[in-house]
Amino acid sequence: MKRGYITGSFMFLLVCFLLVACNTGPQNSESEENRIAASHPNKVMGPKEQKEPIEFKQEVTISAIGDMLIHNSVYNDAKVDEGYDFKPMLEQVKPYLSDTTISIANQETMIGGVDLGLSSYPSFNSPTEVGDALKWAGVNVVTIANNHTLDRGEEAIQRAIEHWETIDMMYTGAYKNDEDSENIRVLETEEGISVAFLSYTYGTNGIPVPNGKDYLVNLIDQELIASEINEAKELADAVVLSLHFGNEYERLPNQAQKDLVQFVADQGVDVVIGHHPHVLQPMEWVTGESGNKTLVAYSLGNFLSGQDEFYRRIGGIMKFSISKTVKDGETTIDVHTPQFLPTFVKYENWEDFEVLPMFQLTNDQLPNAQQHYEEIKAHMSQWMPDLTFMEGIS
């Protein structure tokens, strides 16, 4: 009996010893809920390392030209056996218009077609082939609100719009009906950046807008402009606004131009492109009331015209970039890297019209060509010292 008691007691003590041994040793202060898979009880758990926020960035480039003002000398020179061909006039500048995501032109004369009668100053009308040449050169947006919009009445406007639609060219500033005018023009790029285009003119050379047909031309009206800018900002990442304003042949903007530009900058417009003076006016950055920066070209001058005064033969191609950055759920739009290419309309005896980059001009084509080129560069950059000038395709 005693031997069995001793054996049973021994077994009892052995079991107790084993139980105590299993519950001794270093204890992890963490609760089981805080353990992760494969964690070790002796491992000190530190805070997780924060990952960098994901950032996406897209970018587009935009080029813009001034007035396509097709005088009779220009379209007479473009006459061929079967219609008109303006392409040779733009051939030397096509590379600078076709290398950007978007190219904008101010088509000053309605392309109503030859059967409506062609331009006889001051009442303009142009062959539809002008639009074909712009499309060929790389332009994909035209602004058509200017003082000559109503020169040949509603029929010319409707015919012009019909042709713009036929060649798939976005137009803004004059419309075919009320519904068309309420459709803010927004170009969605493959790069994922959307750009809205607005266009307005100071007037129509005294020609009244037909009653009930305000859609035929956008007139400068601050209330209208502010409303459409606000709508455009809801629809697009960036807003580019064209203004037909200022005094003809004056090389600096007047106070009314500056005041209107300040107004639209305060509304948050990203870029302002001016035309009507038919000569170049400088570029600059204008600060809006919210601290935003608006890129402004007060006038891009004549790109192609039959005007013969020296400064009226000089225009240019404005180029800039728009980037869109999405970081940590926040979207930022930045207009940057403005550039300019001065151009010159060369012709002899009202023939062989051709738009040429000024940096390529020889003294045979323009006496003292380099001196004139440097003067234009200084003129355009006087309020934007860091403005760069294109002297080749980048």
UniProtKB/TrEMBL annotation:
List its EC numbers.
3.1.-.-
Give one GO term, molecular function aspect.
hydrolase activity
- Segments forming domain Capsule synthesis protein CapA: 61-307
Per the record's keyword annotation, is Hydrolase included, yes or no? Answer: yes
Q: Which PROSITE patterns match?
A: PROKAR_LIPOPROTEIN (PS51257)
Q: Which CDD domains does its entry note?
A: MPP_CapA
| Key words, A-Z | Hydrolase, Signal
The answer, when asked if Zinc is one of the entry's keywords, is no
User: Which SMART domains has this protein been placed in?
Assistant: PGA_cap
Residues of the signal peptide: 1-21
Q: Which family does it belong to?
A: Belongs to the CapA family.
Q: What is this protein called?
A: CapA family protein
Taxonomy, top ranks, is:
Bacteria, Bacillati, Bacillota, Bacilli, Bacillales
